[in-house]
Amino acid sequence: MSFVDTLLSTSRLVQRRVKLCTCTGLERQLLNELESLSLKFNLVSRGKSYVDILTGLDTIWSIIQNSRICRQLYIHVLDPFDAENPKHFVNRLNQADWASFIPFSHKLPPPTIKVLSSNSKLYHTGMVRNMVERVINSHCYRYKKMQGDELPSFMKNRGYIPLCPKITVDINNNNCQVLADASGDLSERPWNKLSIMDDRMVSSASSAVIQELITGDALSDSSQTIFFLSLKTKMQFIQIKQIRNLGMLK
Length: 250
What we know:
The chain is of the alpha+beta class. The chain has helices spanning 3-10, 27-36, 57-66, 86-94, 125-147, 153-158, 190-194, 203-215, 222-226, 231-245; strands at residues 16-21, 42-47, 50-55, 72-82, 113-118, 167-172, 175-181.
């Protein structure tokens, strides 16, 4: 069971900040895909290889199930903040609602924590990881003291086995993001592993190309489009054009 299911069972209407990762240059196509899926969200920010939105958990689950351009989905444990020094860093971590992301129980393993640091005062990743672990352990201790060490009743009644998410702490130019991995690598599709074809295009990139070809005027001028595509993708392009000529793509 994903921790997203746990959130859906407890706080379905809560709006959460979500980071959607994709290939560089496909940010606009990702937003277009979300709109085409009729999903409700508010755009917070947009940068190289990612889009940040504010949305509910039903939309989060729908993106995980239906998006082909999103490569990975993270939920912000708390809003991004400036990590000025270790004391300020720990104080901000303590403001997070860790119990909403991590099921505190001795029956479950602790979350995996990954730390990335670039051009920041908090450059020692091992020290940062230790601080995060201490904060999570303190929240776990207080939770168990007040609520007990058993899993929530709705998990036991439904036979749920919750999984702790992977926590990523990304500190870049002293700006810190604490992210919970809600999807894993969405480009790891079963048909990729079964295919005997080599050098396969990443599914998010190919989906964006197809979307542009179908909705735009790229098909009317094949010479411009084929110039940017590999030999293998040329064959896919020709197949798409043939299908459209047969009236299967509107």
